[in-house]
């Protein structure tokens, strides 16, 4: 069980990080995500880190890389579910996750992605929630 | 990272199983889920097992227990994302997950929960997707 599963909800891909990420699993995740975005035409990616207790510069870079990859497919990325202790540590370490959008929880993240998708016309007008794609 | 995170999307709670589950983590998950259903009034629970490579009678019983707990809160449970090899093994072992509803993937699972919620009136009429609660 070393591959992080990627779930699809409408036009959004959801990644819930639960395992300790090492070089190999991060590379595999980035590859899998790129393939899934390309295959599904998703307009957004949510990375949930509510199970993550430690975020270091390695993980921070991973978020930035995933966001950059997604952008090449015209998809937005939001990191959600950060624990308070993680946020404090990040700021203390001077890691501000610049360029990576964050939201309190999955629902707020999906709301942000919906607004971004509608503003840019990537979510069809007849689909107010942006979740009806399949 | 031994607690399985529970995500909320509208009236549905989502559990993505990625770690090997042992007695303690299964108990913790059941407890957490019962508390979250009770706190949120969710009408459905989706358990994603796309990362799970082996399902034995222990895990099978866990699904049934979670479904029974959910039912006490008037919530439906769907297990989604089963790998083909897991399905074959389950049938070979005679474990048919009786009483536990299954679906191909997260989206189909959420569609089933939406239909069940609408039929029973647990999803308000003004909310066609069943995802607009927050």
TrEMBL record, chains A, B:
Residues 2-113 form the STAS domain. Gene3D superfamilies: STAS domain (3.30.750.24). It holds the Pfam family STAS. InterPro entries: Bact_StressResp_Reg, STAS_dom, STAS_dom_sf. SUPFAM superfamilies: SpoIIaa-like (SSF52091). PANTHER family: RSBT ANTAGONIST PROTEIN RSBS (PTHR33745:SF1), RSBT ANTAGONIST PROTEIN RSBS-RELATED (PTHR33745). This is RsbT antagonist protein RsbS.
